[in-house]
Amino acid sequence: MSRAIVGMFAGMALAFAGYFGGFGAFLLVAALGAVGYAVGRYLEGGARREDLRVLFERRNR
Fold first, then answer.
1. Number of Cβ within a 10 Å radius of residue 17
2. pTM of the predicted model, to two decimals?
């Protein structure tokens, strides 16, 4: 499945959560989607824990 289709489904899920559940549900779905993406990326082998550490260190400078 292409990334555009996955993005469309994610956008639709956020829209439904925002419409039916309010802003709190929108934030919850967005946060859980980000966690799911990170876990999937890690399991796929595309990311390492060190990459995340470097990202946070770069922000703190």
1. 20
2. 0.61
